[in-house]
Amino acid sequence: MRQTSLSKNSIEFSPYLVGTMRLGKWGENFNTKQWINFIEESIAIGLKDFDHADIYGDYTTEADFGKALKEKPYLREEMQITTKCGIRMPAENRPKNKLKSYDSGEQYILQSVENSLRNLRTDYIDVLLLHRPDFLMNPNEIAETFEKLKDDGKVRFFGVSNFTTSQFEMINSVFPLVTHQIEASLSHLDPFEDGSLDQLLMKNIRPTAWSPLGGGHFMHKGNSKSEQELNTTLKNLSEKYELNTAQLMLLFLKKHPSGIIPVLGTSKPERLEEALKVETKTMEKEDWYALYSAAKGEELP
After folding, report:
1. Which of 88, 154, 190, 215 is 20 to 30 A (C-alpha) from 301?
2. What pLDDT band is residue 11 in, cutting at 50, 70 and 90?
3. Does any domain span residue 32?
4. CATH code at 29?
5. DSSP states of 225-262 as a string?
6. pLDDT by residue (tens digit) across 70-121?
7. Phi-psi region of 18 (alpha: psi -120 to 50; beta: other; left: phi over 0)
8. pLDDT confidence of residue 3
9. What is the rounded distance in angstroms from the CA atom of residue 199 to the CA atom of residue 164?
10. What pLDDT score was predicted for residue 110?
11. Which residue from 255, 258, 259, 246 is spatially nearest to 281, judged by alpha carbons?
12. From CA 208, how far away is CA 299, in angstroms rounded?
């Protein structure tokens, strides 16, 4: 399996991250046996990177995943774990969180990491991301916190998620980040226009992308003229590249020179295998623009 480096002298990832958000309480509600089977099947086909966040499943999904690692501890050495922190969300097991807010303070990050390490049954996290930008964040405090976690061997690499270009630059200027997880898909084209991907290309840092299929938005037939035109474009190009719609949408992202690594949210191993088939395809530039224009619903200026 071809591995991809997120940045120079950095961690190497598989072509896709395996998302866990919908596998726990917020979706499939896997039991421990199902978690083990899913993890083993993912690793068996070469997808060893699992994407978490402390808030998933109302702060329960990391612990559910950890139960699988308790049963099969050897799996930890065969995988890499990304997790996120920084969102304070009201939940039954977080009674002190009175409203949804963001926190990038030293004590909150340190405690979040301790919680994740305990819940995931691991001694270290491969990549820690700040989940959302805290509008009150102090970059120097974050840098010092990251340095402490790295020195203590609790986190190997660091990144952010859903930051603006200026927010990313502010943190990266005082502590080296290895990735930026952004929302990117045919239904969310902002990163192609707002400078996010340009910035990462310039710095030789690879983005990861959540919701790469747009939450299934394009899997449903629309009735408007623009939706019909998009569906026609998807159909024609799917036939040309011998791919289904989901695979075509992944190929669209992978065409970008920044080297986008999609986060796959499926609970079905066969869908993961389908995604890997995209790796043998290359999209022509004119076809990429045909999809881009159809998704915007207008001709490019």
Report:
1. 215
2. confident
3. yes
4. 3.20.20.100
5. HHHHHHHHHHHHHHHHHT--HHHHHHHHHHTSTT--EE
6. 999 999 999 999 999 999 999 999 999 999 999 999 999 999 999 999 999 9
7. beta
8. 62
9. 10
10. 98
11. 255
12. 28
Question: Kind of pairing, strands 179-183 and 155-161?
Answer: parallel
Q: In angstroms, rounded to a whole number, what is the distance separating the alpha carbons of residues 257 and 201?
A: 7
Range of 68's domain? 4-221+246-282
pTM of the entire predicted model: 0.95
Residue type, 121: R
Q: Are 261 and 208 in contact (CB under 8 A)?
A: yes
Instruction: Name the one residue in this structure whose structure tokens are 């050495």.
Output: 77
Q: What is the tally of structural domains in the chain? A: 1
| Alpha-carbon span 248 to 242, nearest angstrom | 9
For residues 214 and 245, the answer to whether their CB atoms sit within 8 Å is no
What residues are labeled active site?
56
Selected residue with higher pLDDT from 262 and 301: 262
The residue written with tokens 């076809």 in the block is 287
Task: Render pLDDT for 21-76 as a digit per residue (tens, 0 to 9).
Answer: 999 999 999 999 999 999 999 999 999 999 999 999 999 999 999 999 999 999 99
Phi and psi angles of residue 101, each rounded to the nearest 5 degrees, phi first: -155, 180
Taking the alpha carbons of 240, 246, 250, 252 in that order, is the dihedral positive or negative?
positive
Average pLDDT for residues 202-221, to the nearest whole number? Answer: 84
Model confidence at 220: pLDDT above 60: no
DSSP string of 50-83, one letter each residue: EE--TTHHHHTHHHHHHHHHHHSGGGGGG-EEEE
Q: Which residues neighbour 264 within 8 Å (Cβ) at sequence distance 6 or greater?
A: 16, 17, 18, 19, 47, 212, 271, 272, 275
SS3 91: strand
Q: Is residue 68 part of a domain?
A: yes
Nearest of 111, 262, 104, 105 to residue 182 by alpha carbon: 262
Q: Is residue 288 part of a domain?
A: no
Q: CA-CA distance, 279 to 189, in Å (whole number)?
A: 22
